[in-house]
Design a protein that fits this description.
By secondary structure, this protein is mainly alpha-helical. The protein contains 17 helices and 6 strands. It has a domain of 108 residues: Bacterial muramidase (Helicase, Ruva Protein, domain 3, Orthogonal Bundle), CATH 1.10.8.350. The longest helix is centred in the middle third of the chain and has 22 residues. It starts with 7 loop residues before the first helix and ends with a helix.
Protein backbone atom coordinates (compact mmCIF):
# COMPACT_ATOMS: atom_id res chain seq x y z
CA UNK A 1 0.00 0.00 0.00
CA UNK A 2 1.13 3.54 -0.61
CA UNK A 3 1.34 6.32 1.94
CA UNK A 4 -1.03 9.20 1.31
CA UNK A 5 -0.67 12.71 2.67
CA UNK A 6 -1.44 12.73 6.41
CA UNK A 7 -3.43 15.63 7.84
CA UNK A 8 -3.13 16.80 11.43
CA UNK A 9 -6.34 14.92 12.26
CA UNK A 10 -4.86 11.75 10.81
CA UNK A 11 -1.48 12.09 12.46
CA UNK A 12 -2.87 10.91 15.79
CA UNK A 13 -3.61 7.53 14.17
CA UNK A 14 -0.08 7.02 12.80
CA UNK A 15 2.81 5.57 14.76
CA UNK A 16 5.97 7.20 13.36
CA UNK A 17 8.42 4.37 14.09
CA UNK A 18 6.17 1.94 12.24
CA UNK A 19 5.64 4.29 9.31
CA UNK A 20 9.39 4.28 8.78
CA UNK A 21 9.34 0.50 8.42
CA UNK A 22 6.37 0.05 6.12
CA UNK A 23 3.82 2.08 4.21
CA UNK A 24 0.08 2.12 4.68
CA UNK A 25 -2.86 4.38 3.97
CA UNK A 26 -4.64 6.81 6.24
CA UNK A 27 -7.77 8.72 5.30
CA UNK A 28 -9.46 11.61 7.01
CA UNK A 29 -12.26 11.06 9.44
CA UNK A 30 -15.44 11.90 7.56
CA UNK A 31 -17.61 12.61 10.63
CA UNK A 32 -16.01 14.32 13.64
CA UNK A 33 -16.69 12.51 16.93
CA UNK A 34 -18.71 9.91 15.05
CA UNK A 35 -18.87 7.65 18.10
CA UNK A 36 -19.64 10.29 20.74
CA UNK A 37 -23.29 10.18 21.88
CA UNK A 38 -23.91 7.45 19.32
CA UNK A 39 -26.94 5.33 20.36
CA UNK A 40 -25.37 2.02 19.32
CA UNK A 41 -22.10 2.88 21.03
CA UNK A 42 -23.97 4.02 24.15
CA UNK A 43 -25.81 0.68 24.24
CA UNK A 44 -22.46 -1.11 23.92
CA UNK A 45 -21.05 1.02 26.75
CA UNK A 46 -24.02 0.13 28.95
CA UNK A 47 -23.45 -3.56 28.25
CA UNK A 48 -19.76 -3.57 29.11
CA UNK A 49 -20.32 -1.39 32.18
CA UNK A 50 -22.83 -3.95 33.46
CA UNK A 51 -20.80 -6.95 32.41
CA UNK A 52 -17.24 -5.83 33.19
CA UNK A 53 -17.55 -3.05 35.75
CA UNK A 54 -16.13 -0.24 33.60
CA UNK A 55 -16.72 3.39 34.49
CA UNK A 56 -19.35 4.73 32.09
CA UNK A 57 -17.93 8.27 31.99
CA UNK A 58 -14.43 6.98 31.20
CA UNK A 59 -15.73 4.86 28.32
CA UNK A 60 -17.74 7.79 26.96
CA UNK A 61 -14.58 9.88 27.04
CA UNK A 62 -12.66 7.15 25.19
CA UNK A 63 -15.25 6.84 22.42
CA UNK A 64 -15.41 10.60 22.00
CA UNK A 65 -11.76 10.37 20.89
CA UNK A 66 -12.11 7.35 18.61
CA UNK A 67 -11.61 8.08 14.91
CA UNK A 68 -13.66 6.45 12.16
CA UNK A 69 -11.24 4.61 9.85
CA UNK A 70 -12.48 4.82 6.31
CA UNK A 71 -9.52 2.70 5.24
CA UNK A 72 -10.42 -0.14 7.63
CA UNK A 73 -14.00 -0.09 6.41
CA UNK A 74 -12.87 -0.14 2.78
CA UNK A 75 -10.41 -2.98 3.30
CA UNK A 76 -13.02 -5.05 5.16
CA UNK A 77 -15.59 -4.68 2.37
CA UNK A 78 -16.21 -7.79 0.28
CA UNK A 79 -15.26 -7.43 -3.40
CA UNK A 80 -18.03 -6.16 -5.67
CA UNK A 81 -17.43 -9.17 -7.89
CA UNK A 82 -16.26 -12.24 -5.95
CA UNK A 83 -13.07 -13.60 -7.46
CA UNK A 84 -12.31 -17.21 -8.16
CA UNK A 85 -10.20 -19.01 -5.60
CA UNK A 86 -6.71 -19.54 -6.97
CA UNK A 87 -4.46 -21.79 -4.91
CA UNK A 88 -1.33 -21.29 -7.00
CA UNK A 89 -1.56 -17.51 -6.84
CA UNK A 90 -2.31 -17.58 -3.11
CA UNK A 91 0.56 -19.86 -2.17
CA UNK A 92 2.96 -17.91 -4.39
CA UNK A 93 2.48 -14.91 -2.10
CA UNK A 94 3.77 -16.82 0.91
CA UNK A 95 6.09 -19.49 -0.42
CA UNK A 96 8.75 -17.04 -1.58
CA UNK A 97 12.41 -16.42 -0.87
CA UNK A 98 11.63 -13.53 1.48
CA UNK A 99 9.70 -15.78 3.83
CA UNK A 100 11.83 -18.90 3.36
CA UNK A 101 15.20 -17.19 3.86
CA UNK A 102 13.74 -14.90 6.52
CA UNK A 103 12.37 -17.97 8.28
CA UNK A 104 15.79 -19.58 8.38
CA UNK A 105 17.27 -16.39 9.88
CA UNK A 106 14.43 -16.06 12.39
CA UNK A 107 14.87 -19.70 13.43
CA UNK A 108 18.64 -19.33 13.81
CA UNK A 109 18.27 -16.14 15.83
CA UNK A 110 15.66 -17.66 18.15
CA UNK A 111 16.68 -21.32 18.12
CA UNK A 112 16.74 -21.78 21.90
CA UNK A 113 13.32 -20.22 22.42
CA UNK A 114 11.79 -22.19 19.54
CA UNK A 115 13.27 -25.44 20.85
CA UNK A 116 11.88 -24.71 24.33
CA UNK A 117 8.42 -23.97 22.90
CA UNK A 118 8.49 -27.13 20.78
CA UNK A 119 9.41 -29.19 23.83
CA UNK A 120 6.85 -27.56 26.12
CA UNK A 121 3.87 -27.37 23.76
CA UNK A 122 4.64 -30.14 21.27
CA UNK A 123 4.42 -27.83 18.25
CA UNK A 124 7.33 -28.15 15.77
CA UNK A 125 9.63 -25.14 15.44
CA UNK A 126 8.98 -24.85 11.70
CA UNK A 127 5.21 -24.52 12.22
CA UNK A 128 5.68 -21.68 14.71
CA UNK A 129 8.15 -19.95 12.38
CA UNK A 130 5.89 -20.36 9.35
CA UNK A 131 2.86 -18.86 11.08
CA UNK A 132 4.88 -15.80 12.09
CA UNK A 133 6.28 -15.62 8.56
CA UNK A 134 2.85 -15.74 6.93
CA UNK A 135 1.33 -13.29 9.41
CA UNK A 136 3.92 -10.49 9.53
CA UNK A 137 7.11 -11.61 7.73
CA UNK A 138 8.73 -12.13 11.16
CA UNK A 139 7.49 -8.86 12.62
CA UNK A 140 8.14 -6.60 9.63
CA UNK A 141 4.48 -5.86 8.80
CA UNK A 142 2.47 -5.61 12.00
CA UNK A 143 0.11 -2.85 10.86
CA UNK A 144 -0.19 0.89 11.50
CA UNK A 145 -3.85 1.13 12.40
CA UNK A 146 -4.75 2.32 15.86
CA UNK A 147 -6.55 -0.78 17.08
CA UNK A 148 -9.36 0.94 18.93
CA UNK A 149 -10.19 2.96 15.78
CA UNK A 150 -10.18 -0.12 13.56
CA UNK A 151 -12.27 -2.27 15.89
CA UNK A 152 -14.80 0.47 16.64
CA UNK A 153 -15.20 1.19 12.93
CA UNK A 154 -15.83 -2.47 12.11
CA UNK A 155 -18.03 -2.97 15.18
CA UNK A 156 -20.41 -0.15 14.29
CA UNK A 157 -19.77 0.77 10.64
CA UNK A 158 -18.98 -2.55 8.98
CA UNK A 159 -19.50 -2.19 5.22
CA UNK A 160 -22.52 -3.79 3.51
CA UNK A 161 -22.11 -7.56 3.38
CA UNK A 162 -24.23 -10.69 3.54
CA UNK A 163 -22.98 -11.47 7.05
CA UNK A 164 -22.73 -7.88 8.27
CA UNK A 165 -24.58 -8.39 11.57
CA UNK A 166 -22.47 -11.42 12.48
CA UNK A 167 -19.25 -9.59 11.63
CA UNK A 168 -20.24 -6.56 13.71
CA UNK A 169 -21.04 -8.82 16.66
CA UNK A 170 -17.59 -10.42 16.32
CA UNK A 171 -15.84 -7.04 16.25
CA UNK A 172 -17.86 -5.74 19.20
CA UNK A 173 -16.66 -8.75 21.16
CA UNK A 174 -13.07 -7.98 20.14
CA UNK A 175 -13.55 -4.31 21.05
CA UNK A 176 -14.72 -5.33 24.51
CA UNK A 177 -11.69 -7.61 24.83
CA UNK A 178 -9.40 -4.77 23.78
CA UNK A 179 -10.81 -2.58 26.55
CA UNK A 180 -10.40 -5.42 29.05
CA UNK A 181 -6.86 -6.11 27.85
CA UNK A 182 -5.91 -2.44 28.21
CA UNK A 183 -7.37 -2.31 31.71
CA UNK A 184 -5.70 -5.57 32.79
CA UNK A 185 -2.30 -4.46 31.48
CA UNK A 186 -2.74 -0.84 32.63
CA UNK A 187 -2.00 0.50 29.14
CA UNK A 188 -3.62 3.29 27.16
CA UNK A 189 -5.96 1.67 24.59
CA UNK A 190 -4.96 4.39 22.13
CA UNK A 191 -1.33 3.21 22.28
CA UNK A 192 -2.10 -0.19 20.72
CA UNK A 193 -1.59 -0.58 16.96
CA UNK A 194 -2.18 -3.43 14.53
CA UNK A 195 -3.89 -4.47 11.33
CA UNK A 196 -7.01 -2.90 9.82
CA UNK A 197 -8.98 -5.83 11.29
CA UNK A 198 -7.63 -5.38 14.82
CA UNK A 199 -4.93 -8.08 14.85
CA UNK A 200 -1.96 -7.16 17.03
CA UNK A 201 1.76 -7.80 17.13
CA UNK A 202 4.23 -10.26 15.61
CA UNK A 203 1.74 -13.16 15.55
CA UNK A 204 -1.31 -10.95 14.77
CA UNK A 205 -3.47 -12.04 17.71
CA UNK A 206 -6.93 -10.55 18.09
CA UNK A 207 -7.55 -9.05 21.56
CA UNK A 208 -9.57 -12.09 22.70
CA UNK A 209 -6.70 -14.40 21.71
CA UNK A 210 -4.20 -12.22 23.56
CA UNK A 211 -6.27 -12.48 26.72
CA UNK A 212 -6.88 -16.22 26.36
CA UNK A 213 -3.69 -17.60 24.83
CA UNK A 214 -0.79 -15.12 24.99
CA UNK A 215 1.99 -15.99 27.43
CA UNK A 216 4.95 -14.24 29.02
CA UNK A 217 7.59 -16.48 27.46
CA UNK A 218 10.56 -14.22 28.08
CA UNK A 219 9.87 -14.19 31.82
CA UNK A 220 9.98 -10.41 32.22
CA UNK A 221 6.62 -10.30 34.00
CA UNK A 222 4.56 -8.90 31.14
CA UNK A 223 3.16 -9.98 27.78
CA UNK A 224 4.31 -7.96 24.77
CA UNK A 225 3.51 -9.45 21.37
CA UNK A 226 4.74 -6.37 19.50
CA UNK A 227 8.32 -6.11 20.73
CA UNK A 228 9.06 -9.39 22.52
CA UNK A 229 9.83 -12.19 20.05
CA UNK A 230 9.92 -14.81 22.82
CA UNK A 231 6.41 -13.89 23.90
CA UNK A 232 5.25 -14.16 20.29
CA UNK A 233 6.83 -17.60 19.87
CA UNK A 234 5.43 -18.98 23.11
CA UNK A 235 2.00 -17.51 22.43
CA UNK A 236 1.72 -19.08 18.96
CA UNK A 237 2.71 -22.46 20.38
CA UNK A 238 0.29 -22.13 23.29
CA UNK A 239 -2.56 -21.10 20.96
CA UNK A 240 -2.06 -24.22 18.84
CA UNK A 241 -1.69 -26.48 21.87
CA UNK A 242 -4.83 -25.11 23.50
CA UNK A 243 -6.73 -25.70 20.25
CA UNK A 244 -5.78 -29.36 20.26
CA UNK A 245 -2.42 -29.72 18.53
CA UNK A 246 -1.26 -33.34 18.80
CA UNK A 247 2.48 -33.63 19.36
CA UNK A 248 4.33 -35.81 16.87
CA UNK A 249 1.29 -36.32 14.64
CA UNK A 250 1.11 -35.43 10.92
CA UNK A 251 -0.76 -32.47 9.47
CA UNK A 252 -1.70 -33.83 6.05
CA UNK A 253 -1.39 -37.01 4.01
CA UNK A 254 -0.93 -37.09 0.24
CA UNK A 255 -3.52 -38.81 -1.92
CA UNK A 256 -2.50 -40.84 -4.98
CA UNK A 257 -2.96 -39.11 -8.35
CA UNK A 258 -4.91 -41.86 -10.11
CA UNK A 259 -8.33 -40.89 -11.43
CA UNK A 260 -10.27 -43.04 -8.97
CA UNK A 261 -8.51 -41.68 -5.88
CA UNK A 262 -8.87 -38.10 -7.10
CA UNK A 263 -12.56 -38.66 -7.82
CA UNK A 264 -13.14 -39.95 -4.30
CA UNK A 265 -11.29 -36.93 -2.92
CA UNK A 266 -13.50 -34.61 -4.95
CA UNK A 267 -16.61 -36.36 -3.62
CA UNK A 268 -15.39 -36.00 -0.04
CA UNK A 269 -14.38 -32.32 -0.30
CA UNK A 270 -17.36 -30.74 1.46
CA UNK A 271 -15.52 -27.73 2.90
CA UNK A 272 -15.91 -28.78 6.53
CA UNK A 273 -12.69 -27.97 8.40
CA UNK A 274 -13.10 -30.46 11.23
CA UNK A 275 -12.10 -34.08 10.56
CA UNK A 276 -15.42 -35.90 10.17
CA UNK A 277 -14.59 -38.82 7.85
CA UNK A 278 -12.45 -41.82 8.71
CA UNK A 279 -9.53 -42.85 6.57
CA UNK A 280 -11.21 -46.23 6.18
CA UNK A 281 -14.23 -44.60 4.50
CA UNK A 282 -12.02 -43.70 1.55
CA UNK A 283 -9.77 -46.77 1.57
CA UNK A 284 -12.77 -49.12 1.46
CA UNK A 285 -14.12 -47.14 -1.51
CA UNK A 286 -10.86 -47.71 -3.35
CA UNK A 287 -8.74 -44.63 -2.61
CA UNK A 288 -4.98 -45.08 -2.76
CA UNK A 289 -2.55 -43.02 -0.67
CA UNK A 290 0.79 -41.56 -1.72
CA UNK A 291 2.38 -42.05 1.71
CA UNK A 292 5.00 -44.84 1.57
CA UNK A 293 5.57 -44.83 5.34
CA UNK A 294 1.87 -44.87 6.25
CA UNK A 295 0.54 -48.15 7.67
CA UNK A 296 -2.90 -47.71 6.18
CA UNK A 297 -4.37 -50.78 7.85
CA UNK A 298 -3.43 -49.48 11.30
CA UNK A 299 -4.89 -46.03 10.66
CA UNK A 300 -8.33 -46.83 9.23
CA UNK A 301 -10.13 -45.21 12.19
CA UNK A 302 -8.14 -41.94 11.95
CA UNK A 303 -10.47 -38.92 11.59
CA UNK A 304 -9.72 -36.99 8.39
CA UNK A 305 -11.06 -34.28 6.09
CA UNK A 306 -10.47 -33.56 2.43
CA UNK A 307 -8.61 -30.31 1.67
CA UNK A 308 -9.49 -28.92 -1.76
CA UNK A 309 -7.10 -26.41 -3.38
CA UNK A 310 -8.65 -25.12 -6.63
CA UNK A 311 -6.83 -23.15 -9.33
CA UNK A 312 -8.86 -21.89 -12.33
CA UNK A 313 -8.00 -23.72 -15.51
CA UNK A 314 -6.20 -26.54 -13.72
CA UNK A 315 -7.19 -29.72 -11.93
CA UNK A 316 -8.01 -29.08 -8.28
CA UNK A 317 -5.37 -30.35 -5.88
CA UNK A 318 -6.55 -32.49 -2.97
CA UNK A 319 -4.86 -33.47 0.26
CA UNK A 320 -6.11 -35.32 3.28
CA UNK A 321 -6.10 -33.20 6.42
CA UNK A 322 -5.81 -34.55 9.95
CA UNK A 323 -6.46 -33.06 13.37
CA UNK A 324 -3.39 -30.82 13.24
CA UNK A 325 -4.54 -29.35 9.92
CA UNK A 326 -7.84 -28.49 11.58
CA UNK A 327 -5.91 -26.81 14.42
CA UNK A 328 -4.12 -24.60 11.87
CA UNK A 329 -7.52 -23.46 10.59
CA UNK A 330 -8.32 -22.22 14.10
CA UNK A 331 -5.65 -19.56 13.54
CA UNK A 332 -7.22 -18.62 10.22
CA UNK A 333 -10.26 -20.45 8.90
CA UNK A 334 -9.00 -20.70 5.32
CA UNK A 335 -7.80 -24.02 3.88
CA UNK A 336 -5.45 -21.96 1.69
CA UNK A 337 -3.95 -20.34 4.79
CA UNK A 338 -3.42 -23.59 6.69
CA UNK A 339 -1.91 -25.32 3.66
CA UNK A 340 0.43 -22.37 3.01
CA UNK A 341 1.64 -22.49 6.61
CA UNK A 342 2.34 -26.21 6.26
CA UNK A 343 4.15 -25.87 2.94
CA UNK A 344 6.16 -22.85 4.11
CA UNK A 345 7.14 -24.76 7.25
CA UNK A 346 8.43 -27.62 5.10
CA UNK A 347 10.36 -25.23 2.86
CA UNK A 348 11.98 -23.42 5.81
CA UNK A 349 12.96 -26.69 7.46
CA UNK A 350 14.49 -27.97 4.21
CA UNK A 351 16.37 -24.70 3.61
CA UNK A 352 17.81 -24.79 7.13
CA UNK A 353 18.91 -28.41 6.94
CA UNK A 354 22.73 -28.93 6.78
Amino acid sequence: MTMLGVSSAQAQSARPKQVAQQSTEFEEEVVPQRYAANPEVDAFINDVVARDGFNRAELQKIFSRVVFSQTAARLAAPPAVPGQKNWKNYEKRFLDNTRINGGVRFWNQNADTLARAAQQYGVPEEIIVAIIGVETIYGRNMGNFRTIDALTTLAFDYPPARNRSERMALFRNELENLLLYARERAVDPFSIYGSYAGAIGIPQFMPSSIRNYAVDYSGDGKINLTNDVADAIGSVANFLKQHGWQSGQPVVWNIANDRGSQGLAEAGADGQPEPHWKLGDFIKAGMLMNEPRLDVGAKLDTPVLIVDLPTPGEATQYRMGLNNFYVLTRYNRSFFYAMSVYDLADAIKAARAP
